[in-house]
Amino acid sequence: MKSNGRVVLLAALPAALLACSGNAAPGGDAAAPLVADAPSPSPSATAAATPPPAGAEPFVKTVVADFDAPWAMTFLPDGRMLVTEKDGRMLLVSADGRSRSTVATITVDPAGQGGLMDVVLAPDFAQSRRVYFSYSAAGEGGKGVVLARGRLRADDAGGVRLGEIEALFRARPFVSGDGHYSGRIAFSPDGRYLFFTNGERQAFTPAQNKTGTLGKVLRLTPDGQPAPGNPLAAQGFQPEVWSYGHRNLLGVAFDAQGRLWEQEMGPKGGDEINLILPGRNYGWPNASNGSHYDGRDIPDHRPGDGYEAPKVWWNPSISPAGLMIYSGAMFPEWRGDAFVGGLSSKALLRVHLSGDQASKGDQWAMDARIREVEQGPDGAIWLLEDGGGSQGRLIRLSRG
Question: What gap in Å lies between CA 185 and CA 194, rounded to an integer?
Fold first, then answer.
């Protein structure tokens, strides 16, 4: 079971419950099982678990697979995984990592920080087979991040495809540049709402502007419409906006008590863990515990400045990517804590959560840029490295 706030699956279900034919007539929904995994080949040397030196780390690292610039992953009820790659491929990967197939190829703008980004299952995936994902696209005015969904179904050729793909929401406005798309997705614990992050596209001031969605956390319906009751519409903000004053939001997750946590990259220093509250202003670019890259100062967060301060921050930067709140049984001592991948820091970081407070925990060197952190069905921790070839590995951390 995965319960990191991005999607909650109530029970592990067999693959036969996943799908219908992708070529069914409109309105048709006759059940047809997904194809079972092909027989696994003999284990390769890279799949062998190698225990760390005594006392070095509290887990065993197992290299499971290798990808080309992977960005995100999520587990299916049967233990298989969906993995996104930057250039637009979405892959269905066996639980042991030894077989894979392409279920969709999305047209993306992959320049810079763009590409195919997050992927999560709908809360009712067992019935709807819907998969939500985000990507960068070019359009009128420049580029922006898009929220989309499709249905995972068996196809007539005996494989599995993501069909019925539809774009649900596009960031406003599209602007020039190739950075700070964000594009992380989290469903509320009750499954009624979808939270979607829009970065400020390295343009600073859009994070404070009422006229667009850039630099914001958005609360949408599962169909991509503004959720009713969003707190800032009456003040002239776009109707989707839940919170604002954000920079580059690369992780969102709900804890077991329903609190929404978010991590974002600061400028030169000032990377943040935030507790996201409705209607709050998180300060960017007017307040940050970091500085501009050219050395110019930014006022630090301080009491009474009108901005919501981070619960945890880092200086120098760790370049956070991915956010998971642990709920498994394999590492009971970490249950309820947040895990963050580090890009420039090449690390996995643990943040201790206690109610609405947070504090820094462990930081383990991973010797590679960590793009994604997920919890597996058995409570293992899974990492995706940020790179291509031998630098884009999928790694499983298990109890030694």
Answer: 7
The CATH number assigned to the domain holding 269 equals 2.120.10.30
Please check whether residue 29 lies inside any domain of the structure: no
Rg, Å, the chain Cα set: 20
* Any domain includes 374: yes
User: Within 13 Å and on the Cβ side, how many CA atoms surround 114?
Assistant: 21
- Asked if 312 and 359 touch (Cβ cutoff 8 Å), the reply is yes
343 pLDDT exceeds 80? yes
Q: Is the pTM of this model over 0.85?
A: yes
For 85, the token pair is 């790659």
Cis amide leading into 123 (omega within 30): no
Structural domain for 240, as ranges: 47-399
Q: What is the pLDDT of residues 45-96, one digit of tens each?
A: 333 444 445 446 899 999 999 999 999 999 999 999 999 999 999 999 999 9
**123/188 Cα distance (integer angstroms):** 9
Handedness of CA 141, 144, 150, 156 (dihedral sign): positive
Give pLDDT tens digits for 239-264: 999 999 999 999 999 999 999 999 99
Residue type, 335: R
Active site residue 180: yes
Q: Is residue 39 part of a domain?
A: no
- How many structural domains comprise the chain? 1
Of the listed 180, 246, 292, 301, which one is catalytic? 180
